[in-house]
Amino acid sequence: MSKRIAIVEDDPAIRDNYASALQKQGYEVVSYATRQDAEAAFSQRLPDLAVVDIGLNDEIDGGFLVCQQLRSLSKTIPIIFFTARDNDYDTICGLRMGADDYLTKDISLPHLLARIAALFRRTELLNQPQNPTDLIHTGWLKMDANRMTVSWNDKSIELTVTEFWMLHAIAKYAGHVKSRQQLMDESKMVVDDTTITSHIKRIRKKFVELDPNFDRIETVYGMGYRWKSA
């Protein structure tokens, strides 16, 4: 069965262009021009991945609201913001809301297709047979790569696909510093430093909400990040 991708974009030329390109790659595509149309459709059926513009008609932050609705319906569906707004504030806001990626419209079509394919590869790992390396248990942290579940002190933490694999890359080698490049390689993603920093901050925040004393994810300035052993 082909993957179903939703495009939420108010510009008809852009919407039709990318819908056509994705269909040629074998994806099923559904398109929406307004936040209201997208939200009504998502409440009935979720796509396998969503590509969302931030500004939708007269709603300058309409895409953020779409992202929030999607995250309330699914913690793991991949969400990509695809927008002309190229600034750190919007990037950080988008990632904090749970998006897996933030791309600007000046990137090439092959680049967008590659990022979509990478997100699908990560979600497909859920269906692979489990083996011992899928399980991480260090201190209070437990991770199951097959089921994409995380718990801290036996309390569940809900992470997005990107957050999960970034944490997995760090925790798998507890005590070892992982550079930003290594994080990208391990989690099969290509993003800039700001995006990685935003994901790490969001992961930390989720742990701190459960445990105010959480301090296991350490920033090693100039080098990267590591999971501190207990």
TrEMBL record:
* DNA-binding residues (ranges): 133-229
- CDD domains for this protein: trans_reg_C (cd00383)
Which residue ranges does the record assign to the Response regulatory domain? 4-120
Q: Which residue intervals define the domain OmpR/PhoB-type in the entry? A: 133-229
Pfam families assigned to the protein according to its UniProt record, in alphabetical order = Response_reg, Trans_reg_C
Keyword tRNA-binding attached? no
- Keywords associated with the record: DNA-binding, Phosphoprotein, Transcription, Transcription regulation, Two-component regulatory system
- Which InterPro entries does the record associate with it? CheY-like_superfamily, OmpR/PhoB-type_DNA-bd, Response_regulator, Sig_transdc_resp-reg_C-effctor, Sig_transdc_resp-reg_receiver, WalR-like, WH-like_DNA-bd_sf
- 4-aspartylphosphate occurs at 53
Xref: SUPFAM superfamilies: C-terminal effector domain of the bipartite response regulators, CheY-like
Hey, what's the signal peptide range on this chain?
none
Keyword Aminoacyl-tRNA synthetase carried by entry: no
Q: Which NCBIfam families match?
A: marine_sort_RR
Q: What's the protein here called?
A: Proteobacterial dedicated sortase system response regulator
Q: What is the lineage of its organism?
A: Bacteria, Pseudomonadati, Pseudomonadota, Gammaproteobacteria, Alteromonadales
Question: What gene name does this entry carry?
Answer: pdsR
